[in-house]
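Troubleshooting log. The previous structure file for this entry was overwritten by mistake, so regenerating from the original sequence record. Sequence copied from the archived sheet and checked twice against the printout by T.R.
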Amino acid sequence: MGEYRGCPVHVIICAKKRTKKRSRWLAKTLAKLHPAHRYVITSAYFRRQSITEIATRLGIPESDVRSRLHYGLRTFKALVDEREGAAKSCEAKARSVSLPH
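Regenerated output below.
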């Protein structure tokens, strides 16, 4: 999953080449979000609903939808960066271990 490090969040969420492993990873990452954030992200990116449609469905102002989307994507990005950083750290540790001759 290292190819996502530094990518815009919408690229990660909407990636066309999604394997089963990546789909499970995406589902697990989205599951870590607050339900309100997860709902607006999935509505906007997977259901392709507009801000107005989401606001109407939830019965909240459009500004609240935009706010939830912003903070949800920010949290999602932090989770991705955290995971990618941990993976890089493990790779670096594995390379630094000297093998016996």
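The chain has five helices and no strands. Archived copy saved in two places this time.
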